[in-house]
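User: Modeling request: complex.
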Amino acid sequence: MAGPPSGDRIIAVGTVLEDRGAGIAHPPFSEFAAHLFDRAARAPTQALAATRLRVAGLDLRLVSEDRGLLDAYAGRFAGTAGHSHTASSGRLDVALHGLAALRLPSMPSWEPPAGETGADARRDDGFLSVSGGGYDASYQAAPPVWTLFDRASGRALQLAGQADALPPWDIGAPCRLPIHHALRRSGWRLAHAGTLGRDGTGVLIAGLGGAGKSGTVLAGALDGLTTVGDDYVALGLEADRVVARAVYSHVKQDAAGIDRQGLGDQLGPGDRPNWQGKYELPLAAIAPGALVEALSIRAVVLPRRGPGEGTGWRRCGALEAMRALGLSSLTQLPETLREGFADYARLLRRLPAFRLDLGSAPAGVAEAVSRLIEAVR
Amino acid sequence: MWTTRYEIAAPDVVAEDFDDEIVAINLDTGRYFSLRGTGHAAWSHLASGGSLRALTGEPEALPEDARAAALAFLETLIGEGLLRERGEATDSAVSPAATPATSSPALAPGALLALAVESFDDMQEMLLADPIHEVEEETGWPVRRPEIAS
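Assistant: Request completed. Predicted assembly structure:
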């Protein structure tokens, strides 16, 4: 079970520890986080570049010494630097730095005090999350990356060995954790779900990995339906109605799905599958006009691969919807289960749930979802 | 057991009512549950402090299979850690329909046979790997060494 390397412990807060004397065995997490934010604020501005976007209602500003990383991130957001129909719901400033920009010799580490938490409180993949003291933070060990969010100011810091020394899945959903925390400040959240819609009204496509979310979204988008995303969307209430907003611009699909959807000619010689063996394709290129800013959500659809060629749907219970949307999202994003469970219940009480048995013909999938959207409109 | 009052075993257990279905999760075990139909009605009654006797009527008057079904249902809820005892009812001499905190009518013996709790453990590993360390909100997480702790 990996975690912050013990040899590097408290490098970033050494001064703080000296000032406080021997009475403190561990620094408060708030001091550790504040120290890193302070170092980020003192990064030499002449070496930094910035990008501004409106993403899911958030005024997002990215700052980094790595221009290439900024460009790569900007290309993955569904947001625009120009006009947006979505009112601003807050500001999120994310500083994307490597150790050198903060003049740190190695990755700083913070450990929960011994006895306060057991080893089972840490994820098997070396992922540690801390919430409190005004901060939400996550650390992952390989490669080492801190992501810290300051609730009061709406600022976030992503600190890696080098700004772009990030895990292979990062580019699939950049700034995922800061966006989730920033959305929660205004009662919204990042949800692990896809969407399909028509004329502003739509459905959530929810399920655990491999359920067929992306394939369903792609089939619909290629057949004239709209979407605000296939994997992560911003989810919240507006005037007591559930609304989903677009965060990211790409859809993921494995080689079999690419072939099934007839998208082979969209792949260039330089396109390579990602860490999951899936290709990440910009919706604007493969389904122009399909990606919209927001959808009014009227139902939750839970796809699963059916035995036949045809696609059909039927009503299902709240537990299935909670499992596919709520529990799935809560295990993907750092959030306390107790609060998250209640919040998802609040959303799901407003939405009927349907099981979608996927057939092998993509056109049949799109047609079935289209009929369902009309039925719940 | 028939006159004991129960409550939801918070904070480890959270339960949400979706009109026709109760969805509950035990955060301590990572198991989650569904109760529908008479199970929904019975949960609502028991979780709000109603006794089993108020739900079923006098146990001595019940057919053996109905009495066994009611007891098995309650034992499942307790065994899964969803409900815990709140204390003995003080109105043991009062008729079931008049028992306080009971909005549901007593269930017919036939309905007791349909009492069921669906349980699931397929997400247990992920749910128990709670990635959040909640630290003290005001101060962060300072831990004073034992020799200077007051």
